[in-house]
Amino acid sequence: MNKFSKQYNDDVSSINSILNALYEVISGEKGEERDWDRERNLFHPKARLIVVRKDEDNHLDTKIMTCDEFIQYAKKKAIIDGVGFYEYEIARRVEEFGHVVHVWSTFGSKYSKEDHEPHTRGINSIQLLNDQKRWWVMNIFWNKETSEFPLPEEYCN
Question: DSSP for 31-63?
Answer without folding.
Answer: TPPP-HHHHHHHEEEEEEEEEEEE-TTS-EEEE
